[in-house]
Amino acid sequence: IRSGRSALCLQSFYTAGPKEVRAWTIQKGTTAPQAAGVIHTDFERGFIKAEVANFDDFKALHAGQASMAKVKEAGKYRQEGKTYVMQEGDIVVFMHNVSGSKKK
Prior knowledge:
The protein has a 5-stranded mixed beta sheet with strand order 2-1-5-3-4. The chain is built from 5 helices and 5 strands. It is 30% helix and 31% strand. The mean pLDDT is 91. The termini are far apart. By secondary structure, the chain is α+β, with helices and mostly antiparallel strands.
């Protein structure tokens, strides 16, 4: 599986919520807004920023807690903008804003 993903230039990023952790597959070189668009097109259209931590940092620092608190304390949790290129193992929270009303 790993060699196939590598040959196809694929990588994963993760999203986590209170009920679910999910892996999303993207191509290497995908920017944060494009990755957000894999989840929902509105996320790409209204992209503001991505809050990112690497899985390996989380694994080393979380101390058994289902929380980013230790990662943040260690300075490994960062905010990235529209030009950020996603990395294998990123854990991401996408900030977005799409207005429901359209101007006439």
